[in-house]
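Why run this: before we spend reagent on co-expression, it is cheaper to look at a predicted model of the complex and decide which construct boundaries make sense. The entries below are exactly what would go into the expression plan.
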Amino acid sequence: MSSPLITPPTIGVFDSGFGGLTVLRALVARLPRARFAFIGDTARLPYGSKSRRTIARYAVESAQFLVRKQGAEFLVIACNTASALALDAIQDAVPVPVLGVIEPGASAARAASRTGDVLVIATDATVRSHAYAAACQARGLRALEMACPLLVPLVEEGWTNHPVTAEVIRIYLEELNAEAAAQGLHPDTLVLGCTHYPLLRPLIESAVPAGMKVIDSAEAAAEAAIRLFNGRAAPAASRVVDRETEIRCFATDSVEKFERLGSRFLERPVGNVELVDLGG
Amino acid sequence: MSSPLITPPTIGVFDSGFGGLTVLRALVARLPRARFAFIGDTARLPYGSKSRRTIARYAVESAQFLVRKQGAEFLVIACNTASALALDAIQDAVPVPVLGVIEPGASAARAASRTGDVLVIATDATVRSHAYAAACQARGLRALEMACPLLVPLVEEGWTNHPVTAEVIRIYLEELNAEAAAQGLHPDTLVLGCTHYPLLRPLIESAVPAGMKVIDSAEAAAEAAIRLFNGRAAPAASRVVDRETEIRCFATDSVEKFERLGSRFLERPVGNVELVDLGG
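The model came back. Tokens follow.
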């Protein structure tokens, strides 16, 4: 007896660039039969230097594109800046569940830490928002955040397994651990608070003090999304016939860089990235 | 007998960010009694990933601000991307002389090179425009360009005299010299085709092969501006009473980073950076 063919669920993933493809990769690994639509608002990055109002407007436009034009039934905001500054605005603007990356990262840190003290490395914009510190504090953790502005350029240069990158990571972590010690903290957990950093995970794990756990907020967000998603859509998803993962990628500009670098983040070909105009 | 007090000339300097402050610094050193108005269109950077039409519109808005609102009688486009893609549009849009950074850099390379073969290091966007290669070719030079995407982040991290930066420069130049050799070139001149790179000049000069000349396009642009400026305005400028340099800096967003890093580029305090809204 054949079961009826069910349209698989569509999950929308949004980032200001293409770093959020690490979140998409983590989602694909957990929901290989779903449909995914990813949009990178590359024409308007970086979000980090823009005002909250502007970021919210941009992020809402991308979210609406995913829901209205791509039929997304669930959204993951795979962008730390937009998660920090525009999650409420997106949730108000679309009629589907929306999940960011920061709360799941903080929850995973809470589950991992025994001392209650955690370190967070992220971009300058994310650190300035103190969104991870606030989310950690809400869970009873003390968090020390540090901006590591060289790590994104090093990943984008392709130096993910390069002695220079290892040295830069060593310098940053030495400074961060010294500051933690100066503040009397005893951190046992490090949160990777940037969607580019999972590509540096091997080098970072080699550089942290023995016993320190490394939390990847992309993985944590995917885990949280799956829990939320299965709670709502599991009956439909389970009836989906066996099929290949379907991924469509969109960008608002600079498709070339997205296509060139995106496969490294997604760990599979990104295929043709489609250019879309969101206006603005 | 006292000469009448003459309003000093106002020179407008434009960049998409604040790297162009190295051009302003070079101008101030040569015209210490002039007035300067600098605008960094920080809300809309980076220009490199945007279309020619968008870049031209943005650059024209900044140029008009300098001329109409700040009374600039002369403009220097201290931005490689805007110089490459929008110089004509700016010249059409404002009634004052306009000078970019690329042609002066190429002219200085022409004057310096004996072999006729030059190397150019710049950002990815500038290299993709091939503006330096074209300007060099127009002067009978063969130019090999290479993007060095890590150098701007290293400067902005403040690692201008850091072993990591020295190693990154060594790696880039080794690759560039190997490529030059493979192409049968005999370069004797290296053009710094990015307004951030003058801060790395000591490290770069230590890393180039013996005898290779280093051309700073910020210095070259300031030299060219002074020649052009003196040709037109010297009589007025010479009657200006002895006075302090007057510099006003404007930005369209993220004044904090501009103020924090700008002094390093200008080699003097940037003072209060005024926020302006150009619309768009």
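Chain A touches chain B through 20 residues (CB under 8 Å). Chain A has eleven helices and ten strands. Bring this page to Monday's planning discussion.
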